[in-house]
Amino acid sequence: MNKGHSTDAMNHREDGYVPIRDVEDAQLGMFDKPLPCFGCGIGWFFFLLGFVFPLMWYFSTILYFGKYYNKDPRERSGLAACAIAAITFTVAACISLNNKSLLEAAAASSNCSTI
Q1: What is the pLDDT of residues 18-32, one digit of tens each?
Q2: How many whole angstroms separate alpha carbon 107 and alpha carbon 101?
Q3: 19: which strand partners?
Q4: CA dist., res. 57 & res. 45, Å (int)
Q5: 3-state SS, residue 30
Q6: pLDDT reported for residue 58
């Protein structure tokens, strides 16, 4: 008897035997459908949209830490990229705001010394 082939009369076709289905085949069907948002997934779509609306990165970060990727593991990389972008944007914004306040303080102190 060949391994991987069914011998049931119900599965028997005229042209031969029908292969036995694996348990894993049911799980593979979940990933046959395309991802949402033009096929690139929510994470990558929000990553690109975040360059115009940075708040989308923060929303995606909430989805990432809320384990939204358990619904579809293909979303994990895009959501992780959004989390990294949100952290990078926050650090860059804090540095630029801190430098601006330091420059204003330096300008104010130089104006006070000339008076």
Answers
A1: 666 665 555 556 667
A2: 10
A3: 5
A4: 10
A5: helix
A6: 92
Rounded to whole angstroms, the Cα distance separating 20 from 30 reads 19
For residues 109 and 101, give the distance between their C-alpha atoms in angstroms, rounded to a whole number: 12
Q: How far apart are CA 69 and CA 42, in angstroms?
A: 10
C-beta of residue 48 within 8 angstroms of C-beta of residue 38: no
89 Cβ neighbours under 8 A, 6+ residues apart: 50, 54, 57
Residue type (1 letter), 51? F
Query: Rounded to whole angstroms, how far apart are CA atoms 85 and 47?
Result: 8
Half-sphere exposure of 92 (CA within 13 A, CB side): 7
Give the model's pLDDT for residue 24.
59
3-class secondary-structure state, position 16: strand
* Ranges assigned E (strand) in 35-107: none
Q: List, for the chain, all residue ranges whose pLDDT scores fall below the cut of 70.
A: 1-31, 110-115
